[in-house]
């Protein structure tokens, strides 16, 4: 079981700038918990995501000596990936590839064919620099724009990624559009069809639907889950109103119920939860 904590996703849509020192201290608390990966920041245009303009400064302030958690940075283009690749502390580079043409344009100012070309170059860069590319299939469970979507469409996108030798694909419910049925359908089809790919669930949710979504993904064989403490955040490029991230505390509680080990340190998790409350005011 791999739990990926996403403070970057939690912070990116907030209008009030979180001071660099506050970000750094929060990330340091998260690094003590034992998450598999920390989606800690992004190298994108500060005009697009002003909240994360200090990612390099935050990274410089982290003490990584005692953590086993991998650091993941999100990029929107090859230039951002080239920047991220210069940091030996960063093990993973994430890129959002949208199943929806409308959202791809909104999110990265590229068409899907252009994004695929960019992604291929980023994958080559990752191989050369010893990084792991994590590709997020944005709008993976549907979209609000009327763009084509079907399980077959998602499978076609996944095949293109497999052809590039992309090894981690996170199906992303960018606006909370998924249902338990679509989640179970996709994972149950894709996981056996692409055994070389590690599939993740990046689910956005409302408080009343989180359990059925997690249960559906878990039942279908998914063992990589993204979350954010407090369920804070969402994608500001997707909609005017943000649909919250999957609350990490709910993931932890669910996996405890089903007897699935997460490898997290309970004391450090409690301390990180308290720190999240201070940062995000919940």
Q: Report, as a whole number of angstroms, the end-to-end distance.
A: 28 Å
Name the poorly predicted regions.
236-242
Instruction: Supply the CATH architecture.
Output: Alpha-Beta Barrel
CATH superfamily: Aldolase class I
> What order do the helices and strands follow?
EHHEHEHEHHEHEHEHEHH
Shape field: globular
Question: What is the level 1 CATH name?
Answer: Alpha Beta
Largest sheet: 8 strands, parallel
- Structural class of the secondary elements? alpha/beta
Query: Would you give the CATH topology?
Result: TIM Barrel
Tally of separate domains = 1
Share of helix among residues?
Answer: 40-55%
Summed up, the helix count is: 11
Structure description:
The protein is of the alpha/beta class and 282 residues long. It has one domain: Aldolase class I (TIM Barrel, Alpha-Beta Barrel). The chain is built from eleven helices and eight strands. Strands 7-6-5-4-3-2-1-8 form an eight-stranded parallel β-sheet. The radius of gyration is 17 Å and the shape is globular.
